[in-house]
């Protein structure tokens, strides 16, 4: 079988999938929607409680928290909606990766947290780490 035969077989398979309505990308689409909705929902929560979000950023030593917190929440909201709808995927997944990388390491540094806060920060850290993994997979997908 030559490369041309392989390409022809793949093209025929894709055409057959489109005609029968099957979608091999369904798990990826579902994953994008779940990640996007999760990011957007958290951003929405941050906006509803912006005073607390700013306070939390300030306690973590974030410079200019009254500007950084709304900016980061906006970045998370736009990236979440963009990922869920798969609009401007390179930009929105890149924004999510950037947001999650910075926030995970700086805001949820459980190794520096007080004993009372350590468990919650650890949970947030590993939750963000899991979302970062998904965002990286979708970032790669955006460039295919």
Write the layout of secondary structure elements.
Layout: H1 3-20, H2 26-48, H3 50-59, H4 65-85, H5 89-107, H6 115-142
Helix pairs in contact: 2-4, 2-6, 3-4, 4-5, 5-6
How would you characterize the overall build of this protein?
The chain has one domain. It is 83% helix and 0% strand. The longest helix has 28 residues, at 115-142. Helix 2 (26-48) packs across helix 6 (115-142), helix 4 (65-85) packs across helix 5 (89-107) and helix 5 packs antiparallel against helix 6. The chain is elongated. The chain has 144 residues and is mostly helical. It contains six helices and no strands.
Output the helix-strand order: HHHHHH
Radius of gyration computed on alpha carbons:
19 Å
* Number of helical segments with 4 or more residues: 6
The major beta sheet can be summarized as: none
What is the end-to-end distance?
25 Å
Helix content: over 70%
Strand content: under 5%
Number of domains: 1
| Number of E-state strands | 0
Structural class: mainly alpha
Oligomeric nature of the chains:
single chain
- Average predicted confidence as pLDDT: 88
Shape summary: elongated
Point out poorly predicted stretches.
none
Explain briefly what this protein structure is:
The protein is mostly helical and 144 residues long.
Main attributes of the structure:
elongated, 6 helices, mainly alpha
């Amino acid at each position: 079988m030559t490369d041309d035969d392989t390409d022809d077989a793949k093209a025929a398979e894709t055409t057959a999938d489109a005609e029968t309505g099957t979608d091999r990308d369904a798990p990826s689409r579902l994953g994008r929607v779940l990640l996007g909705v999760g990011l957007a929902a958290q951003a929405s929560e941050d906006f509803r409680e912006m005073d607390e979000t700013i306070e939390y950023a300030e306690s973590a030593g974030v410079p200019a928290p009254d500007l950084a917190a709304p900016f980061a929440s906006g970045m998370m909201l736009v990236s979440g909606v963009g990922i869920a709808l798969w609009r401007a995927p390179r930009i929105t997944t890149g924004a999510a990766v950037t947001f999650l990388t910075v926030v995970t390491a700086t805001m949820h540094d459980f190794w520096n947290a007080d004993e009372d806060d350590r468990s919650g920060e650890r949970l947030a850290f590993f939750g963000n780490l899991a979302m970062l993994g998904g965002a990286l997979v979708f970032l790669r997908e955006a460039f295919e």
